[in-house]
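Bench notes, afternoon.
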Amino acid sequence: MTQPDAARITFTDSAEDAQIAHLRQEIARLAEEAYTRAEKARKRAKKWNIIYIVLGLPAAVLAGISGATGLASADARIPAAFLALIAAGLVAAAGFLQGETRVITNRRCRSAWQVLEGQARVFAARHGYGSRADLRASLERLYEMRKAIIAGDYDTIIGAPLPASAIRVFHYNHPNGVVSPTPLKTQPH
């Protein structure tokens, strides 16, 4: 059975132009999605940072007050015990919620989405007026990056986090005012 002419798909120059336009639009859509998701991850990181501080700071203050109160006099040991229990509850809540871990994860997520957005914008600028094959290859690469981010594989996109031993401290060389890295062990005091 043959398809009627109206239902048949044909590729002409205008159809190829339409496909190139669609590929360009898809790259632009991915850049916009990456921007939006990066902003959401930034807001989540900020929220978890606030929760971490709101739970941790009062716990530290209450623990200090309860210790000082308990040592001050024998009559103050009961209120000190209540303060210590409240502080322990706040510390337990902070530990259970893992606010610091969530902050770091959301910051890495934000960074990964920002890398994807940047790559999409670079691909649009570099290959936006190229061939269909260039646009398709760029789009496939962007979708691979998107899939990795959604799966939580941020290391593929932004690299593994640095170990503490690899962190460098920067200081000014006094003679010429140039900033240079110095390993943490040899930092001048």
